[in-house]
Amino acid sequence: MSDPTFRVGVIGVGWAGQQHLAAYAALPNVEIVAIAGQETELRHELGARYGAKHLFNDWERLVELPELDAISIAVPNFLHAPVAIAALKRGLHVLSEKPLARNAVEGREMVEAARSAGRVLDVAFNHRLRGDIQKLGEIIHGGELGRPYYAKASWMRRRGIPKIGSWFTNRDMAGGGPLADIGVHVLDYALFLLGEPRVTSVSAATYNELGTRDIGSMQWETAAGQGSAFEVEDMAAAFLRLQGGGTLVLETSWAAFRNPDDLIDFHVMGTEGGAELTAVGATKAKVGDLRIYRDVDGEVADYRPSAEPGLAHPGVVADFVRTLADPDEWARNDGSIALRRAQIIDACYQSATEKKEITVE
């Protein structure tokens, strides 16, 4: 029997939405039925390119289409919850861009809607699919480093504010700055690498020293201006206590006076070894520098494992579609992992505001 064909719609025609469209188009068992986006010319261009029969300015009309099986959400954060909940209530599966929502309250409503509908709710954590992170995961999960007890992870930008004055810098629309935007990627891949330990408490600080002075917009701006003031942080740091006694330090910035090349990294110390992953250039570095530090029979036995480029959005979309093809997997993909990320991010913001350590429920 041939694989079933899934009919999908994509909401949002910016960079992320275009990643989803290209990834769906590459799969033989997916038909792109509908596209929604407010950029009329671009919407029609993409509709023609991918053969979408229905093109809408508003997302509400797209989720009402009776022939859809699933949607992708690639719109500003404040729309994630209302779009996802409406789609799930219609019986559609949902793949959303990160973060899950502006906060854990909205995120929990999305997860509850997925459970009530018996449908999949997934979030595009594409950086855990980097080839170097997958390779390091094999090493850590295989026990080569023993028990990890200390880790540090970051995504740091010199000039990386998506656009000052856009929805990204509006607290109500975005929910937060780099901690919610790219920091959630760092949190996701770090917890994935550490074997999904439970975070018990956090102590965090946020800063907005540069964005408020109109310093730090990226050269390639990704969002239209809304006229908003800079209301979010431009840098954040957090100390996370993990169940079992381990700790994780997380740093992220949109703007900071540092090396001009963006940086994604992960450092871990375990009872039998350690590792460092450094991707200078961040997403432009398809494979980072990965080093393993070990002793064998009392002698230094460090080495540099090789890794292939990762799968990025095509991998996320392919995994989503594979899940749709197996109804036994639906209940295990209800957005719970993304909700845990949201709860931790919320606790970080609360800690920064109240200037104290916060227990994560």
Automatic annotation (TrEMBL):
Pfam families: GFO_IDH_MocA, GFO_IDH_MocA_C3
InterPro entries noted in UniProt: Gfo/Idh/MocA-like_OxRdtase_N, Gfo/Idh/MocA_oxidrdct_glycsds, GFO_IDH_MocA-like_dom, NAD(P)-bd_dom_sf
Keywords of this entry: Oxidoreductase
Residue intervals of the Gfo/Idh/MocA-like oxidoreductase N-terminal domain: 6-125
Residue stretches making up the GFO/IDH/MocA-like oxidoreductase domain: 133-275
PANTHER family: BCDNA.GH03377
Protein's recorded name: Gfo/Idh/MocA family oxidoreductase
